[in-house]
Amino acid sequence: MRKLLSGICLLWSIYTPLAAQTTEEVLWTANYSSAKLSAIFEEIQKEEPIRFFFKQEWIENILFTGTFSQTPLEQVVIQLLAGTELTYQIYQQQYVVLLQKNPNALNNALRARGEEEGLIIIGDSLSNQGQKNATLSGYVRDGATGQGVTGATVFVQDIQQGTSTNLNGYFTLSLPVGIHPLTINSLGFEEEKRNIRMISDGTLSVDLYEGTARLEEITITDRAEDYNVSSPQMSATRMDIQKVQKMPAFLGEVDLINSIEMLPGVSVAGEGAAGFNVRGGDVGQNLILLDGISIFNPSHLFGFFSAFNADLLKDATLYKGGIPARYGGRIASVLDVSLKEGNLKKVTGSGGIGLVASRLALEIPLVEEKSSLMIGGRASYSDWILKRVDDLTIRQSEASFYDANVKWTYRLNESHKVGLTGYISHDDFLYAGNTSYGYQNIGAAFNWDFLISQQWLSTVTLTHSRFTYEVGDLQDSTRASLLNAGFAISEGRWNLTRFLGERHQIDAGINMARYGFEPGELQPDGDFSLIVPESLDKEQAWDMSLYFNDEFTITRNLTLNLGLRYNHYLAVGPRTIAIYEEGIPISPGSVVDSAYYGSGETVSQYQGFEPRVALRIGLDARSSVKLSYNRMRQNMHLISNTTSITPTDIWKLSDRYVRPQIGDQYAIGYFRNAIGNAIESSIEVYYKDIQNLVEYKDGAEILMNDQLETDLLTGIGKAYGVEMFLAKNLGRLTGWLSYTYSRSLRQVEGQYADERINQGDWYPSNFDKPHDFTVVGNYQFTRRIRLGFNFTYSTGRPISLPEGTYRVGNQDIAHFSSRNQYRVADYHRLDISISVDGNLKKKKKWDSSWTFALYNLYGRNNPYSVFFRNDAGGSLNAYQLSILGRPFPSVTYNFKF
Question: Which of 127, 401, 409, 696 has CA 20 to 30 A from 605's CA?
Fold first, then answer.
């Protein structure tokens, strides 16, 4: 308990500046006759820079008679307390603490006094060993649900420092010992203030409640107002889910992926194209995570709908560059999406009813303040629209999808939290009654967050994800077949975070993944089918990584982030590998032997380091320059000779003939805010080199090819561009506009003529779209009515076109140009929506809104592709394929309870 009173001395020191003289230097001279001890202490404090701590009732009846002559202070104290029930402790040579057998009485009294003054005592003086700074850790929670609030700002006004909460609502700050006023903010919540008295390391939990301020007064943000300027992170965007829900969406379904496509540096092949392209990368070079679960097809119905239910989302961040060392496995980007946790206090729900799909989500507390369950799902009923299309082929087609999520969390205490996540997404499509497609992604995750101490946080994540697809050929009963393929990934991740104050954070961890790929299994469909069953060898591999990341603020204007990741990849058996004759091109006819590898035997292995570095240079309070470099390695490859994800795509692991892709990206950016951080602007320039790109020979066969490497080519790539971004975050009108100039080029220069593309010259990739301009806006007419709009323009994507024809018999045969030497017409589209919210009562059991949207307002007939076919006379004619060439209206009813 002596240390307890010592801590009180430390608190007092913050508000009572003293001279450098100590108890060892003070010599006291005085003569006392029946003097009260309290009077003697007061006299010494007036004359010398020494402070005494005691409780008045302990000494009020103690008298002292004696003489001191140049007596050291400690000897004075010993003589004053001789014969009493008190002892003492000297702290930092400036504070004298009187102690008795039960010192808790004093400690409790001082804490009670602190409460009367509106102070929250943080820490325990038993833990304070003379430290001048202490670590404040804690959680910011939604007071209505008990869920952690991501991105809430905790700001210390007196020292002008702050931080923001992580994905789980956790934060940590290093503060001087003493009293500090805190301000806690988050978008959509009322501001909270706390006055704390820091004694030693300790925790603080804060509940935030939904804001009720008038529209024009709302200035709350979900992160530090100058985050884009003050943070070393660049080339990353954290998507505000509330803003995503306000953007116009196709047929009323809120779409996270569509929102991401509106960002600078992100493009899409066209309407109806699944996946997205980032800074010159293809769709298979994006790592997409949902609570750590790998998602391989982020869209429904070939790209028209996102595979993520926006009602269930908590946070989504897209990293285009400057990617933290904890991420690996893809070379273009990382999209990290997390689900909300269920309400810990009451049953709530939300959902929507639209023209083609409906959704419902429920949050159920299982153990109040500790455990909750969240479940949600969506299902489509789009066939009625297809039946009303003029095209007979479309009327004979069918399409549907569904997805479901479940998340259970249990907070054992303030230090331990565990959770389970489940996800399933399924699509079915029948084209004109003769071809069927079906694909699904199933995943599960276990997460354990363990706050080891105020400075150490451990996170363990175990995930399993399986993607399968089925293609059915139903045209001819004698050739009817079903093709099944799939792959599974099981991963374990352990991350350890060390908080060394708000200016220094270290992350380290280990990742281990097990890949299992099933390239294809062909089976007859029906009793009359003559298809011979066939199955390709499975592919398996281990992928292991270690990483370390250190972010520290060197000075107020200089922050450095250093990261290093080491990756070791092993492709293993059982598997048979073809061996080809040397000195000639690889082809099915050049196989001279084969090698069999037993279960667990190493087929091939690759390893390498992935350095990461980012630097922020603050120019002033409103602007900064940032630089970054990162190297990424990718051991799995999306094998597709189309411009977007399709159900017939396959994934392939690196092996003897297909090496890991390696991407090196350099970026520099200038960031500036204006008008009190209400306006954000930035310009970024990047350059990327890519090694071991996978390309395809003309006429490549992908499905059921047991010698796939004979149709693949290896090349290099480069991408570069400029991204400009301007955003308005406050006021009735909010939104952003962006412009991107970018190029994505490839070169395949093989040893032999038939292993080259365009004679080995550089050529545009399938997704090279130099110009991209986007405007996204939201105007709040009243507190209940708002207008949303977005406009996008981009250069048409590259294609190959016939440059001539020659006649063979009665048919024209096309002579095509070099690969990707022409372009389809430019793409542009305008969407609008009007949303009408329900009543604005603060306490209501049912909340609802209506959203009326119009997709492709002016009916632009945007080309998706151009194809050629012979007419009845054999002449070759060109045709343009457009997915949506007319306005598409929608209405959606949204509700919460």
Answer: 696
CB 690 within 8 A of CB 675: no
521-527: Cβ within 8 A, 24+ apart: 521/483, 521/484, 521/485, 522/481, 522/482, 522/483, 522/704, 523/481, 523/482, 523/483, 523/484, 524/480, 524/481, 524/482, 525/472, 525/473, 525/474, 525/480, 525/481, 525/482, 526/477, 526/480
- Domain ends where: 90, 115, 140? 115
Give the CA radius of gyration of the chain.
Answer: 33
Give the position of tokens 């039946």: 387
User: Which of 93, 92, 178 lies closest to 133, judged by CA?
Assistant: 178
Give 891 or 808, the one with higher predicted confidence. 891
The terminus-to-terminus CA distance of the chain in angstroms comes to 51
Tokens of 130: 């003379």
- Dmax (CA) for the chain in angstroms is 132
Name the one residue in this structure whose structure tokens are 């007092």.
12
- How many other C-beta atoms lie within 10 A of the C-beta of residue 555? 8
Rounded Cα–Cα distance for residues 81 and 93 (Å): 18
Cα 672 from Cα 677, distance rounded (Å) = 9
Q: Do residues 294 and 442 touch, judged by C-beta distance below 8 A? A: no
Q: Give the domain CATH number at 729.
A: 2.40.170.20
pLDDT at 767: 87
- Same domain membership, residue 199 and residue 261: no
- What secondary structure does DSSP assign to 871-885, as a single string? -TTS-EEEEEE-S--
pTM of the full structure: 0.79
Sheet bearing 133-142, strands edge to edge: 170-176, 133-142, 202-208
Number of structural domains, the chain?
3
> Is residue 109 pLDDT above 70, yes or no?
no
The amino acid occupying position 163 is T
Q: Looking at 115, 139, 158, which one is the last position of a domain?
A: 115
